[in-house]
Hints:
Chain A has helices at residues 36-47, 81-84, 107-115, 137-142, 160-164, 170-181, 189-197, 211-214, 221-234; strands at residues 3-9, 21-27, 66-69, 72-75, 87-91, 98-100, 103-104. Chain A is of the alpha+beta class and 252 residues long. Chain B is an alpha/beta fold and 606 residues long. In chain B, strands 1, 2, 6, 7, 8, 9, 16 and 17 form an eight-stranded mixed sheet that branches. In chain B, strands 11-14-13-12 form a four-stranded antiparallel sheet, with helices on one face.
Amino acid sequence: MDVTFRIRRFNPEVPGKNKPYWQEFTVKNVEETDRVLELLHRVKWEQDGTLTLRRACAHGVCGSDAMRINGVNKLACKVLVRDVGTKIQIEPILGLPVLKDLVVDMEPFFDHYRSVMPFFVNDTPVPADGRERRQTQEDREKFDDTTKCILCAACTTSCPSFWANGHYVGPAAIVQAHRFIFDTRDEGWKERLEILGEPNGVWRCRTIFNCTPACPREIQVTKAIGEVKLAIQQRKREGIATPVGPIAVGNG
Amino acid sequence: MKTHQYEVVVVGAGGAGLMAALYASKRGAKVAVVSKLYPTRSHTGTAQGGIGAALGNLEEDSPLWHAYDTVKGGDYLADQNAAKVLAEEAIDAVIELEHMGLPFDRTDDGRISQRRFGGHTSNFGEKPVRRACHAADRTGHMILQTLYQQCIKQQVKFFDEFHTIDVLVNNGRCVGSIAVDLATGELHVFHAKATMFATGGWGRVWSVTSNAHSLTGDGAAVTFRRGIPLQDLEFFQFHPTGIYKMGILITEGVRGEGGVLINGKGERFMEKYAPKIKDLASRDVISRSIYMEIRNGNGVKGKDYVYLDVTPNTVNRYLAEAGESRRITGEDVEKKLPDILDFCRTYLGVDPVKEPMPIQPTAHYAMGGIPTNVDAEVVTDEHWTVLPGMYAAGEVACVSCHGANRLGTNSLVDLVVFGRRGGMKMAEYVKGADWGALPANPAGEIEAEIQRIRNSKGKSRPGEMRATMQRVMMEGVGVFREQKAMQESLDCVRQLKEQYANDLHIDDTGMKFNTDVLEAWELGNLLELAETTAISAINRTESRGGHSREDYNERDDENWLVHTLISRNHATPYAIDGTYNLNTEKKVDMSLAAEDERFKPKVRTY
């Protein structure tokens, strides 16, 4: 079968292309199990080498190739033709400056990430036997879901609150903070809750739920944000985070 | 052109690079990390099953047994001093990762949980042992995240999306490197007292690979062009269980949990090839066994794949047969292998809890690379002569702890153990070292080469050339090899190199985010690695580990307990008409065997 792409393009260096525009490409001999990323590669490698996008692992683990595919944030390497049909519209993710074609400036996103102390803090001396700090498997499971985050920005750039206000730290940064706040070994959680209690922290979240279906790792993002809100309000972390069950949010 | 000065520059932000940066920084050095990707995109993040360390949390274990498995798994080509360091320091390194917050799965008493993995045994090969420490099936992801987080905490300076394209060697020492800033196309000189290459492997030489598109051997090719040899390139691991046609990895952890390989006739064929530990034999053995089955007409539906079956029915049947009391449920599989299930459901529409997965061997890991000693210092000859200021760690390096075939989990061990050692060594070195002088016009040659690529208006598209190279390397220099086919592949690669020099076609002539030019540049690196791999493979007239020849099907310890060093003598770094030097004088370190009979080379059975 043939697939027709309609791709949002922008090249700051070329007159006539330095304002966003649409361009169509047809790719032939496509199988329904082909990944969208493979087909974008075929456009680049066979038709137009100037098409610019990020990618690395090509199987949904590195988080490089988040883009809007038929209007929804996805990783191009995790979407198959059979999932989206033969007319495919491709745009860069929203809310971050576009540098060239599908490549956006990720710095504001990583700045937010770095602002929430996204690292383990524990200044208590390690166990005297020099071995691991103990943790029950039950406690370990409380933050399991948020350890899956690959920082692809699909959640943050699907969030209307982030579109409206780029100072909002956004869902991904909160997910990363959640992973530490509810880790029983971590001692930085109070400070982290204070950061997230600021005006551009969790309270910018209006529980719109776009982030949860946008996550290619199926993290229950909105639930995690809710748990952080609750922890800030109750000034504690015990008894708040619970292991996740199946989610019931449509993707559309 | 901008020039930066850092005492330590680490190129590559995967596990080895971040570990080195962290330790060098903690010990007081001024450190920068230069990476062509955002650090969290690095390929370490795709490692699944676990990191091996003889913690003994679930059953008795010992670093000596780990070293033995590593040496035996490497078909006795591993340098035994390096294997010893790897196994001994794995324990501390894993505990340190836990102290940095890495969320390992836990045992009932709250310690780090461990699972079985291919080739890891207790008591010198007696039976499989639980040695792989894991965080679900995303152990590498957690290592990468944890190390990046700690580097942020430590305020290490990052140059993200800076693609390193040259290394500066002047007056017999390494004085820095050159990178292009992807966003602007501008060249940056990184003047350093110590430069570490931790740039990863080159699986993209082959058509079916588990490797990211980014794994194009940049660091290896760049150092090679500057006269530094590469070691043991003929040893490239084909992992037995890649998703059919796509190459995406299915972790050995599946077999660690009890999964079995089944041929088209429904037989568990590994019983024939490795009667003792069956599906948990080392990777080279299993990949060859799969090919044998396919060749004998036992592929599934007559095609070139077999099944990996982790459905509870099958697993429990074989557990019962083996007299084990353990049983698994669908829920266990969901919990322990969530990413694997997701891959199979997404890409194949197959649910591994209910159906077997179609798999075939996939190009996975370079055992060879830039030769180093156990402190990650680059060495340039058989006398272990150190090139001052130059370091390498991780997959791009060849220390050589993996020998002719790497054991599962040992890549993550390699990253943290030798990344750490390299970081500490660099911090110590820069305290006493002065700033070496940069060569005159340091970026002249590389700038001319990049300009040549950018302005190429020939007929050969890089994508087509790359596909041709990948196909001929898969056919001729893959799991099974013989002289004629390897020579044909080599001839084809050489022709592609001609085309690359004289007939390249580039569409994008811009400066900003020009991935057309950078992909072409990466293709040049892949061609370099393909050619040198084929030459090294043709030269080694024996079969050992990942290098399996049909015309020399025996291991030859009399002549080949040596490493291969290949180097070039061309007048300029981009000339293609030169000859290569092959040196087979570097003997394998046998220091463990000198003390313990059990480490002496013997027939390798599982």
